[in-house]
């Protein structure tokens, strides 16, 4: 038996705003969309890894989800950290910048956090 990591789901309050955010902030592309009646699922990909981000929008949802004390986040590695940081600062979505670690966190329209790591981050930790 082999397990393969496939996707992660985020429930969003405004599907098009969220899709637009992930396209602009992280260059993700919509690869499929399915309307299930009460809700719509949109799948986004970076086109490089097999991992997908699944955005679920309940059609009757009118407010953001209460994320409570949810410390979870997504993480993306980027080959040009300073360029990415400048883009995200321009978008106004940088929530936390850990200059001493060399990483930062975005906040998406629903309050989910996305960590941005420079390429080779974990390799550099051992030095």
List keywords for this structure.
127 residues, alpha/beta, 2,3-Dihydroxybiphenyl 1,2-Dioxygenase, domain 1, 2 domains, four-stranded mixed sheet, 3 helices, 39% strand, globular
Care to describe what's here?
There is one protein chain. With 127 residues, the protein is of the alpha/beta class. The chain folds into two domains: 1-60, 2,3-Dihydroxybiphenyl 1,2-Dioxygenase, domain 1 (Roll); 72-127, Roll (2,3-Dihydroxybiphenyl 1,2-Dioxygenase, domain 1), CATH 3.10.180.10. It contains three helices and eight strands. The longest helix has 12 residues, at 15-26. The protein is globular, with a radius of gyration of 16 Å. It starts with 6 loop residues before the first strand and ends with a helix. The model has no long low-confidence stretch (mean pLDDT 92).
H and E order = EHEEEEHEEEH
**Largest beta sheet: strand ordering:** 1-4-3-2
CATH class of the largest domain: Alpha Beta
Strand content: 35-45%
Structural class: alpha/beta
Nearest-integer average pLDDT = 92
What does the oligomeric state look like here?
Answer: single chain
Spans of at least 5 consecutive residues whose pLDDT stays below 50 are: none
- How is the CATH topology of the largest domain named? 2,3-Dihydroxybiphenyl 1,2-Dioxygenase, domain 1
